[in-house]
Design a protein that fits this description.
Tetramer of two alpha and two beta chains. It is an enzyme of class 4 (lyase). Pathway: Amino-acid biosynthesis; L-tryptophan biosynthesis; L-tryptophan from chorismate: step 5/5. The chain has 451 residues and is of the alpha/beta class. It has a domain of 255 residues: Rossmann fold (3-Layer(aba) Sandwich), CATH 3.40.50.1100. The chain contains 19 helices and 15 strands. A seven-stranded mixed β-sheet has the order 1-4-5-15-10-11-14, sandwiched between helices. The chain has a four-stranded parallel β-sheet with strand order 8-7-6-9, sandwiched between helices. Helix 5 links the parallel strand 6 and strand 7. Helix 4 crosses helix 5 and helix 8 packs antiparallel against helix 9. The chain starts with a strand and ends in a 7-residue tail after the last helix.
Length: 451
């Protein structure tokens, strides 16, 4: 099929989320209460999450219905197109067929509203007045602010300090959608003040911002906490991406040999790839690749063990690939990928050998992003450039071997508000960071031992 875009209509809007937990050959290890070391019970999460999301977090049901009010908001931009990247193929001189799922068309410009809308809806149904959250690059914060504005819920965002300074226009988006935004770590919370004292002059991290947002929610009765990645219910909501893509590949008369998405906490990666996992489990030959930054290599260098999801040790213990909850990655421009751990479901699939991972440096990723912008037109977010770079690497392998493989990646968000990062690239002011193994070992010393 030679169409540039494979489109679905509103009548094709996904009606049910797919839960990969139902098809795993081995169940995930449960989250643990850090005080007792025993598996967490749902009632322990009620101070910060509505019961509907807690039930989704622990569900083993394969399919979960999407509420009509959620689908009505998703209709603003979904279904999104699946593009054939003919111009990129030509520029690379590859026989490979390259596709990308375009998640940049949502109002905030990324995949993040797919779960933000659902989470705010369930909180609104539970009578919650305000939601607190963290954000790295600002994609999640702006998505939650957008969703809160649609349902009339207040929104407080703790934005990692380095991104708060690097990406002021994402902060502007949040303000337009009526959210309050603070550079983390702040002096508003006990955890924020402790981080400022322990790490003087810190650029912040997602782990720190999560601690502040969780503390905010736990200390205000009218407030709940919302997380943009990592948790099972977030992975669930994002599967609208891959479910649409499967329909679109049927229309195109094609099927991917290689699936790629960037990975920080795991949300866009899981959303794009999880619906294809049952095919692989049934014997379909398909490689599923997570592309992460070499500066924050949780999947490629982090051990698979229990750790806290935040720096302040306020979350349950999650079994995941982790660099240690006190790990503070360098201030790379892919702020959404600067997280010390990886989603338990994604980590579990990596441990089972169902998915693989590659670590990439930011300069090579920006080069790939610029090539994409010059061939396909849209400027990608720094996070998205990791998926593009990984796709380029695979396409060039096909050029060497002559194989006509089908390569598909998730275009998780545009970079229209990241142009200062591209300016840094042209000024030759970007650096590559290979995080030293010794510093990772030091951070891992503070990870609790769990038998």
């Amino acid at each position: 099929m030679d169409n540039n875009r494979i489109l679905l209509s509103e009548k094709d809007l996904v009606q049910r989320w797919y839960n990969v937990a139902a098809d795993l050959p081995k169940p995930c290890a449960p989250p643990l209460n850090p005080g007792t070391g025993q598996p967490l019970t749902p009632d322990m999460l009620t101070p910060i999450f509505p019961m509907a999301l807690i039930e989704q977090e622990v569900s083993q049901e394969r399919w979960i219905e999407i509420p009509d009010p959620v689908r009505e908001v998703l209709k603003l931009w979904r279904p999104t197109p699946l593009h054939r990247a003919f111009n990129l193929e030509k520029a690379l001189g590859t026989p490979a067929r390259i596709y990308y799922k375009n998640e940049s068309l949502s109002p905030p410009g990324s995949h993040k509203p797919n779960t933000a809308v659902a989470q705010v809806y369930y909180n609104k149904q539970a009578g919650i007045k305000r939601i607190s959250t963290e954000t790295g690059a600002g994609q999640w914060g702006s998505a939650l602010a957008f969703a809160c504005s649609k349902f009339g819920v207040e929104c407080t965002v703790y934005m990692v300090k380095v991104s708060y300074e690097q990406k002021p226009m994402r902060k502007s988006l949040m303000h337009i959608w009526n959210a309050e935004v603070f550079p983390s770590p702040t002096d508003r919370t006990n955890s924020g003040r402790a981080f400022r004292q322990r790490f003087p002059g810190t650029t912040g991290s997602l782990g720190m911002a999560i601690s502040e947002a969780v503390e905010d929610a736990a200390t205000h009765e009218d407030t709940n906490y919302s997380l943009g990645s990592v948790l099972n219910h977030v992975m669930l909501h994002q599967t609208v991406i891959g479910l649409e893509a499967k329909k679109q590949f049927e229309i195109a008369g094609d099927y991917p040999d290689i699936l790629i998405a960037c990975a920080g906490g795991g949300s866009n990666f899981s959303g794009f790839t999880f619906p294809f996992v049952p095919d692989k489990l049934k014997g379909k030959e398909i490689r599923i690749i997570a592309a992460e930054p070499a500066a924050c290599p949780s999947l490629t260098k982090g051990p698979f063990r229990y750790d806290f999801g935040d720096t302040g040790k306020m979350t349950p213990l999650l079994k995941m690939h982790t660099l240690g909850h006190v790990f503070v990655p360098p201030g790379i421009h892919a702020g959404g990928l600067r997280y010390h751990g990886m989603a338990p479901l994604v980590s579990h699939l990596k441990d089972l050998g169902i998915i693989e991972a590659t670590a990439l440096n930011q300069i090579e990723c920006f080069e790939a992003g610029i090539l994409f912008a010059r061939t396909e037109g849209t400027i990608p977010a720094p996070e998205t450039t990791h998926a593009i770079r990984a796709a380029v690497v695979e396409a060039l392998k096909c050029k060497e071997t002559g194989e006509e493989k089908c390569i598909a990646f998730n275009f998780s968000g545009h970079g229209h508000l990241d142009l200062s990062a591209y300016d840094k690239y042209y000024e030759k002011a970007l650096e590559d960071y290979e995080y030293p193994e010794e510093l990772i070992k030091q951070a891992l010393k503070e990870v609790p031992e769990v038998k």
